[in-house]
Amino acid sequence: HAKGEGRGTVTVFEPGMAESRRDELILEGALKRALDNGELVCHYQPQVSLSTGRILGLEALVRWQSPEMGLVSPGRFIPVAETSGLIVALGAHVLREACRQYMRWFDQGANPGRMAVNVSGRQLRSGSLVALVKAVLEETGMPPESLELEITETFLVEDLAIVPILSDLKALGVRLSIDDFGTGHSSLARLKDLPVDKLKIDQSFVRGLSEEGDDQAIVRAIVALGGSMGLDVLAEGVETESQRHFLQSLGCEVAQGYLFSRPVAAGDVSLQAVFP
Ligand code: C2E
Ligand code: MG
Ligand code: MG
Ligand code: MG
């Protein structure tokens, strides 16, 4: 196979192109090899306090540095990893790597705050996540309260059976956050039953913040909701000073986005405050 995959593959996987089952299988094979060959690495993006500029945590975001295809974005390969089941091994790799890296910083006397790791629906349902998290905490020495697992809202709405799994994760002492909040149509009744610590406002609402209108109202409402439920609220995808200004005026205290830093390789992370 490998021979035929060279240049042709690049054309096959043009962004935005609907992937046929065959293309998906090729990508799946390549991803499996990538996992074995250590081509999957974590980049890290800071989560920043808007009042002090301090870095409160880092989110680990997986990157595939493919020798043939270059840097492949998670938007392309995470869905394939999900359908094929590879996400379970991939997720374990990311979790372990992120916790190890956290402890490397910690041992160097740096304070990375918290480490946030994305967890997919399939991983949650795999039946092995709680044991994995427990094992990784033990083998790395990572303090459980410094680990935050991010779960997208869409998934939390779909599957009611995961609440006991979330409770088991909470019992390990880790934190849980709802990713892409506002896009998954979760009911407030549902939210009340979830043992979560944080809401991450989806970047689609942050994008329109600078203009008067619905996005400002939505962000204000999420901040109020989080506040009254005792949840932290973080805004994703902050790119401009003007968005930052609006978030602060709406009472949102924590943010993440290109304005502060893109996701970068571990060696390029600066844990200094992003503004004085
Ligand atoms: P997410 O968890 O909501 O991560 C935020 C995404 O927004 C990241 O894209 C990040 O690079 C991007 N981003 C951050 N700041 C800005 C900004 O200011 N402007 C814009 N336009 N984008 C910004 P990325 O790294 O491509 O990841 C996309 C999605 O893939 C993630 O969304 C997450 O759902 C998934 N993902 C990434 N890594 C993992 C992983 O290790 N495991 C799982 N299961 N999913 C992952
Ligand atoms: Mg996330
Ligand atoms: Mg998100
Ligand atoms: Mg997302």
Automatic annotation (TrEMBL):
Q: Where is the EAL domain?
A: 24-276
Name of the protein:
EAL domain-containing protein
Organism whose genome encodes this protein:
Guyparkeria halophila
